[in-house]
Amino acid sequence: TTPQKWNFGAGPAMIPRPVLERAQADFLNYNSTGVSLMELSHRSDTYEDLNNKAQAQLRQLLDIPSNYKIIFMQGGGHTQFAAVVYNLVAWRHEQNKTLHTKGADTEKWAQIPVDYVVTGSWSAKAAEEARRLGANVRVVCDAKKALGAYTGIPDEATWKTSGPESEYRKSDRAKSQTPAYLYYCDNETVNGVEFPFVPSMHDPAVPLVCDMSSNILSRPVDVSKFGVIYAGAQKNIGPAGVSVVIVREDLLHTSELNDGVMPVPLMLDYKTMVKNNSLYNTPPMFAIYMASLVFDWLLDPAAQRVQDGEKYFEKELVGVQAAAARNERKARKLYKALEESKFCRVVVTDKSARSKMNVPFRMSTAPKDKPDAVANKKEDEAMEAAFVAQAEAKGLLQLAGHRSVGGIRASIYNAMPEEGVDVLIDFLKEFEKQCN
Ligand code: PMP
Question: Domain Aminotransferase class V spans what residues (predicted)?
Fold first, then answer.
């Protein structure tokens, strides 16, 4: 048997072992069809059943209200960076025309504002893509500017959103055009910043668009507060290849020809996808099948009990409740160990915004109790490299931080058992002893 590995990769990430085993068993003969799922027509009843089942499971897991549609799309998170711009600018244009807003008939794409909250590298990239497409991007909150680095979430009252509770309410901005949407990223995978709240001070006529790629299904979410939620699969849902989009029905009312504003490319068009039940073209069938197995796993009390293990079992929970309880415990003990360690420094200083999914930290030989002590960057980086290499040798995989920021990052998604976090903490203590 292969020795136990603990995969702390940020994505593609760990997939629950029982899911992999089930997929292996199904591989050559799916549902007694005699062929592999990947050889079946996407127009077959067998596949359509699977497509519908996966949607129903996700609806159950996130308690998605009936006025929201679920779409499976391709192209990962990056494709959604563009899709939200096209779809919602076209929707806002249609709204403006319907409401006879002054100038709506001759309105151009670049006149409709789109608001972004930037709390890390993924929301920054999403804003950048909107800008690249020629949209009228307004960064209403820039955490790096406000805090010096991506180490937390600036108070919502300081965001430059137009809304009844905003301090900018009476300003010129409030009088300017209503933006198409307000965008944010619920969990910044690289920087480890996660929202402990859902923004609420903006104009209620402005739909919230949220990137939940790296924390979807990790905790309950009130879907009714959002216009669009999307997530790439390769963290908490399954393998890369499919993205889940949850969209409020009324936002699908975009003009047919998108006169004046840019037409929505067909493959990015939420309306086309909904009309065709995500079967407009050939879908990533295997990725959707894997997602469905992950949903089965989350919904199965026995599987959740096994995941907890006898040592950790508290009470029988399923779905996102089970995941959330476990994720709380895992994150709490890991941050505690890092706080207590002599060499480790948690990157996200705003404790309320520390991610329960991605835990970035640095190592430094400079004493923690002497904040002015000069660190030796080379020495510190060598220590981090030694940590990652020794961890790898012990079966603790993919702990290096994102290539853009360096350091160390432990990603502890739903599929990471609590035992894996304990093994990491034990290793950290052992490593420290050796460095003393
Ligand atoms: N958003 C977030 C929060 C992510 O973590 C990632 C990828 N790690 C992306 C977007 C981009 O996803 P993809 O690689 O699927 O395009």
Answer: 6-112, 176-424
